Fold:
Amino acid sequence: MKIKQFRKMILASVFILIMLVGCASNTGIIEGTIKSESTGEMLADVHIILCLEPSTEEEYLCTLQAKPTTTSDSNGVFRLSNVPEGSYLLMYAMPDELSSTSKEWNGVELSPTILRLDGFGNFVPHGEGLFWEDGWEIDGNIATGSGLSLLIDGYIISNRLGISIMIQDQKKTPFVEVNVDEQIQYDWILMGR
Structure:
């Protein structure tokens, strides 16, 4: 009789262990708010998109991810759950600008190129590769010096995808590092919006 009870206890313990391991998460959460720099208002219906940084030195800045993605609510609040561990560049799409689906943008690699103004007032890549190979539009503050004009603060939007990246102090931003079971709070002010 004791052997049967012992077997039941072992089976129950194994079952519980399997359940605990199965429930363990190797993901994190990114949540926060999104607000317009120009109006100070919270922005609703803004699509939040992740761009994963490569784990090794690569020629590209990051790769757009189809999942997870979310949209800010009427109070500008967003929450990305089940974000795999890694470094991400947060990107966004305004409700009236998004012209693609997650299936279309999934896996698109972005180059780390800086954009500068040419002699005709057009932005061109400075360095190798193109930021958005399909063309882009830019808005924001531009600084000129040493024969080079650079986007300092603002955004760059893809013509084909309708996805924007924010530039602050000449850097693509914001980058977030997601660790297992970590919850990241990011209150975002969109430059030039």
